[in-house]
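User: Run a structure prediction on this.
Assistant: Running it now.
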Amino acid sequence: MLFDRSWYYRAGVDHVMDFCTQEQYERFLRICPLFEREIIEDGIILIKYFFDISQDVQEECFMARAKDPRIHWKLSPTDIESWAR
């Protein structure tokens, strides 16, 4: 079983961007490991990939999106706000 990064948004993006309450954030942190353990105990292989890029590389990507009209559509209002945070 593979989860894409949106599965973990509640712990990262949602919390930082105030898309969830503190209670929802804490509940996710409490329940997520239990849910994953249940999956594993049922014999399902759980694979998690975490990709990380530096702040410098992320800023380069944002600047490229802001300047290049061919990829400007990739720059969402959420991206712009998260850049400030």
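Residues 52-85 form one domain.
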